[in-house]
Amino acid sequence: MTSIESSGGQGGQLAEMNGFENPGLPEHKPRITDSSPTAERLAERQIAAWFIVSMIGTIWFIVAYFLFPVGDSGALVRIHTMAVGLGATAALAGIGIGIILWAKTLVTDAEIVEERHDMGGTEEDQAIALEILNQAKDESGIARRSLIRNTLIAAVAIAPLPAILVFRDLGPLPGDKLFQTLWGPGIRLCKDIGMIPEQSQIMPIRAADVTIGSAFHVIPENLRDSGHPLDEKAKAAVLLMRADPNELNTDPDRESWGVDGIVAYSKVCTHVGCPVALYEHQTHHLLCPCHQSTFDVTNHCKVIFGPAKRPLPQLPIAVDDEGYLVAQSDFTEPVGPTFWEINTRETNA
Asked: What stretches pass through the bilayer (predicted)?
């Protein structure tokens, strides 16, 4: 049982708990900025400098956005991403580091103990709350440290500007563009090799090379000739897998869509469009790494877990006279997130 002994006065109370006495608060050790005005001014300038770094990062993000436009080349995409990424990093890190330095060097660091009291809305409690806010203002120095205050306000004020450019890049909804991809009758399925489509090797896949348990990331043979290889690859990307035909629960109207257990499905998740890239051949599950939507290959990639609302679209495939896998047609339903399809249906209606 806990016992509490009082030795006179709030500051002299000692709590004895299970035989151990409360040691009280440790002795406060002042920092150099607490006793040296020179160190205090230096710390203030360092904090303001970080806020200025944040502003420079924001401005660089905007400049880099226009200076390095995104083209159809993968190299241009990487340069653009690196340039605007550096700006965003400086913008956010500058504010974060500045605030941390402020708290570490200038905000009062003395430890205090406040007794818990009943919450209420009386005028007295409101006055106490206002006093606490004023005390926090005084301890932080935000009222009297105009250099820090002004640079922080400026950095925070312009920090949202890059978001406007990012939202602008989202553009309009795709409309009926997701109903059409590069796949069509006789288009060969090729291995997806290389990050840059125009430099990728075109390697058609033979049905005999697809073994049970294997999976291939596939692109259409005519990707290079599309004029917009990055955009078209994003829509036409396919996962090709082979399972034991006896393990596939094939619908009667889709019996001709596969080749001896070889099936192909869109790689674009029907949740928010992330690339479905993880195949577990023992369970025949496809996993989207973004939000863990899981699709069952043995049941036409129906959703068995996660936020996705519809199965992955299946690409009908066949074998040509030379033994290569080819598409029978385009997808029979739109690829991509379900909300895009719903929007398109409403628009067309």
From this structure: 47-68, 80-103, 147-167
